[in-house]
UniProtKB/TrEMBL annotation:
One Pfam family named in its UniProt record: Neur_chan_LBD
One Gene Ontology MF term: transmembrane signaling receptor activity
Species name: Pinctada imbricata
SUPFAM superfamilies tied to this protein: Neurotransmitter-gated ion-channel transmembrane pore, Nicotinic receptor ligand binding domain-like
UniProt GO cellular component terms: membrane
Domain (Neurotransmitter-gated ion-channel transmembrane) ranges: 179-340
Annotated family: Belongs to the ligand-gated ion channel (TC 1.A.9) family.
Location in or out of the cell: Membrane
Ranges of residues in domain Neurotransmitter-gated ion-channel ligand-binding: 1-172
TM annotation in the entry: 179-198, 204-223, 235-261, 359-381
UniProt KW keywords: Ion channel, Ion transport, Membrane, Transmembrane, Transmembrane helix, Transport
Matches recorded under Gene3D superfamilies: Neurotransmitter-gated ion-channel ligand-binding domain (2.70.170.10), Neurotransmitter-gated ion-channel transmembrane domain (1.20.58.390)
Designated name of the protein: Uncharacterized protein
Domain of life: Eukaryota
Amino acid sequence: MYLFSIVEFDEIAGTITIMGGLYYSWYDTRLLWDPSQYGNTYEIVVPSKKVWVPYIYYLNPADNMVPVGKKYFTNRVYYTGSVMRNVGSIMKTTCDVDITYFPYDEQTCEIDFYAFGYTSSEVYFQISNSQVDMFYFRKNSQWNVQSAIIKPHDNVEFNGTITAVLVLKRHPEYFTVNILIPVLFLCLLNPVVFLLPAESGERISYTVTIFLSLAVFMTLVNDNMPKSSKPMSRLSIFLIMMIGSSTMLCMLAIIITKVYFREDSNPVPNWIIKVLHTMKFKWCSKLLKTKKVKDMVHVHDTSQTVNDDNVYCTKEQNIIFKGDFRNDSYQNNDKRNDENDHVLEKISWKQLSREMDQIAFGYSVFFLTVTCTVFIVAGLLA
């Protein structure tokens, strides 16, 4: 077999169209002659309709089942009875597409050839060269031929069948530049929403814009892949995760903006502060202050500001102490009550929203980093 070019590889339809042909020969004892009796003629060219020809079909056509090569192809007959036939054709066959690692995928297409009308005992294929002839092959701008071989069919029931195996690897530069890199840039912009001032009023429109942009890229990717569930492209899974992340960030931006504009007449519940502390994995200096209290301190007058190395509160706020603060026994129980002597500061809703921004930004950056790293490593190991 020889291969001239890859005309088209349609991943969506699951078909491949190639320009190639077959070179095969057989022996016909009825075509023996003595060259000396015929003017030293050693070979002649005979039309196909004048001699017996085993027409070869491919078993997995995408359209109609037709033999390889037209009937008007001629045959070269040698005086030994050997007949050689060299036919070319545009072959459109089916191909199972695996898009798991799209656009860094590798496809394996098989073309089965069979001589219809004959049993394996009547017509048997003997492969003289297992490598497909690529001498006249013209390179394709989208696909690179990794290997091309001819082998007997794997199924013993198809004894009289040979299989051409083409391994194609995609050139990923187009999809990398036009889809992957822009998607990664959009994903990097996602966490930045929490760095925008809440009072600007642009957070919601910002996140919605990124969400719609990712949805557009999702559509572009789906247009270049077959509509199948198995196997599923990892790029599609990655985009779904990023769209889901963008949805969550949009919801968080709405919640944080609502918190920012809430009136201070309603104090921030203590359980919210504790939840934020847990999510930050440490005591936040603006929310929860841990210290050893040497003296009993209680502020009754809220009309003034108290500033001390250990105490901080603003006007119109009170300090709330939690723990055992008895003056006569605290110093003696210092070590015992270390974990119980926490000063819980009342904060405003605006301060709370800023703390929520920090937490949301940190978690979103962590999620984005892990997801992108896993996706890139999986693509490199493909």
